[in-house]
Automatic annotation (TrEMBL):
Natural source organism: Protea cynaroides
One BP term from GO: glycerophospholipid biosynthetic process
Protein name according to UniProt: Uncharacterized protein
Residues of the signal peptide: none
GO terms under cellular component: mitochondrion
Superkingdom classification of source: Eukaryota
Length: 387
């Protein structure tokens, strides 16, 4: 099979993330060129993580073996692929290094797209504004790495307001764990007066750890125009969620409540205590923009890998890929998203996570249903004659 040798890119593609991505993969693949020039693959793969590759921190479904098939014996990447997860809470660089250790292959930060990765596109708007980051892990570190200069985690932010959470004395973890303010947090509080500056936006980066405290403090921020303890206001600071997953598969046998469940709880409470309804924006799968972004990242991998000439003539109509495979466990997130994204996406549903049915899912049927990710990769490689 022959392929178009010119890859056309958007003239306006100047986003820093894509530039870094291109640099990253180009450096990674440069060694490969010096050794041999393989035939250019006509396909790419996007893997969901939770319920497909890992359960908690345990690899499942033969994922390490499946991923190894995408690399040459030398350890360099053979087939373009990335992880497309709605999860997060740590910077992409850290997640890539964790995945590399767990799966035994070298994952680049540019191959990790998390639910909150699109928050990077909002840096221009909030770079120097006081913003709050909610969720497990290191939500403020994630936002700082994206370029937000005045971001505080909701843990740090709440600690400046005495008695903002009347239940904190009953929370053993809150009593034991006095908030240890890091240097970034101290820098922010040198630039901002947390007790008088209004919060300009709240970002739910990852799953809330303390729903009661977070719902309370977010309602305080969102109903007062950004300053807890002051009068109610008609202005609601913008609220962003990294995803809207109702449930996800973790280590427990049945699904766990996700960020979508937290959003429903927050929205229900906010709408009861405030005269206007909650306004918010959700990112993550199944939004078509997530799949468009993944397609661009894979295209950059491919162009670097095969050293094809990139021309800036603004023509975005050509597809270097015959097929892009989305392998996921959640019909309403992974499969629905791939379906909505249309050509060239092909959806594969595994039975290792949220979906456990014998047949296809009735509402969001996948193009293919398999037991494990290993089976999915074997099918792809066989189908593409690349194994
Ligand atoms: Mg999943």
């Amino acid at each position: 099979m022959r392929f178009v040798t010119l890859i056309r890119v958007y003239q306006g593609r100047t986003r820093e993330s894509l530039r870094l991505c291109l640099f990253d993969v180009a450096r990674s693949f440069s060694q490969l060129h010096s050794q041999y020039q393989p035939e250019r693959p006509s396909f790419g793969i996007a893997f969901d993580i939770d319920g497909v590759i890992l359960r908690g921190r345990t690899p499942i479904g033969g994922s390490p073996q499946a991923l190894r098939k995408l690399y040459a014996d030398s350890g360099t990447l053979k087939i373009p692929f990335l992880f497309l997860t709605n999860g997060g809470g740590i910077p992409e660089s850290k997640r890539a290094s964790e995945l590399s250790k767990l799966l035994g292959v070298n994952i680049l930060p540019s191959q990790v797209v998390q639910g909150h990765s699109p928050f990077r596109s909002l840096v221009n708007r909030y770079e120097n504004e006081l913003v709050i980051a909610v969720g497990k892990g290191e939500p403020a570190a994630v936002m700082s790495e994206y370029g937000f200069k005045n971001v505080l985690s909701i843990d740090d932010y709440s600690s400046y307001f005495c008695n903002i959470d009347p239940l904190s004395r009953y929370k053993s973890w809150a009593i034991k764990q006095e908030v240890n303010k890091n240097s970034t947090s101290k820098e922010v509080t040198r630039r901002c007066n947390v007790l008088s500056d209004r919060v300009q936006a709240a970002f739910v980066v990852s799953d809330s750890v303390d729903w009661s405290r977070d719902i309370q403090v977010l309602c305080d921020i969102l109903t007062t125009g950004g300053l807890p303890g002051t009068e109610r206001s008609n202005h609601q600071p913008p609220l962003y969620f990294a995803n809207d997953d109702l449930e996800y598969q973790a280590e427990f046998p049945s699904e766990r409540l996700g960020m979508g469940a937290f959003r429903i709880a927050l929205e229900a409470v906010f709408n009861r205590i405030h005269h206007s309804t909650l306004e918010y924006t959700s990112f993550g799968k199944p939004n078509p923009s997530v799949f468009k972004n993944a397609e661009e990242i894979l295209r950059l991998q491919l162009s670097s890998y095969c050293n094809y000439q990139i021309v800036n003539n603004g023509n975005t109509g050509s597809h270097p890929f015959k097929t892009l495979y989305m392998i996921g466990d959640n019909p309403s997130v992974d499969i629905k998203g791939a379906k909505q994204a249309g050509h060239p996406w092909f959806s594969i549903l595994t039975r290792t996570g949220v979906f456990k049915g014998k047949e296809n899912h009735p509402e969001f049927p996948a193009d293919l249903v398999v037991d494990t990710v290993q089976e999915a990769v074997d099918y792809i490689l066989e189908n593409e004659c690349a194994s």
